[in-house]
Amino acid sequence: MDSLLIDFESRLVFMPDGRKVILPLMEFKILAHLYSNKGNWISCNEILQAVWGDGWIDDKHLIHVHICRIRRKLGNNNNHQYISTKHEGYILN
Fold it and tell me: At what angle are helices 25-36 and 44-51 packed, to 10 degrees?
């Protein structure tokens, strides 16, 4: 296994080493949205709309904070191995 696997039903993330990561609901929704669009750049506004709905457009700080937490839990907050930042958005590698 060389990449993340997500079990959408149980809301579990499986790391390449087999470790399970349990994320709070909103963090899981963000990662699931990125996973569903793996390899494609997703803007912060698109993530906001997909996860929180229309009322949250342009609250990019909210996304940045959650992405930072997800990276920390995945153990890649320094080298951005799984989630890369790209032009006011993110991409799941």
Answer: 120
